[in-house]
Amino acid sequence: EKEKAEREVIVREFQEELVDHLQKFSMSESPLEGTSHCHINLDETWTSKKKLFQVEIQPEEKHEEFRKLSELISLLNYTADQIRKKNRELEEEATGYKKCLEMTINMLNAFANEDFSCHGDLNTDQLKMDILFKKLKQK
């Protein structure tokens, strides 16, 4: 029992020494820890500000990008509509030329006379093309 009491006294002394050493160690480190904690907090604050600034900027950038894309889509739709309109006009014009060409060929066949006899050796397709080119040049 005496040995047990002595051991408890020794354990308490060691515990007290340990506590003293830890307190001294923590006091010597506390300014450094404070500085490093402050530095870490400063870095975290700076990082948070950057992220916040990026989050504030991002919606504006996305909105501007969306606006530009919307304008581009509108412009492309307008251009596509203009091209479709021009294609319809050209198709109508081509149809008119085809009808005119057919009428001219029919008239030439019906009223073949000496003025066109020199073209007798030309095939009909070449004659059609010549007439069509002349009409296009006049337009």
Automatic annotation (TrEMBL):
Domain CCDC144C-like coiled-coil: 1-58
Keyword annotations of the record: Coiled coil
Entry-linked Pfam families: CCDC144C (PF14915)
Coiled-coil stretches noted in the UniProt entry, renumbered to this chain: 73-100
Protein name according to UniProt: ANKRD18B isoform 7
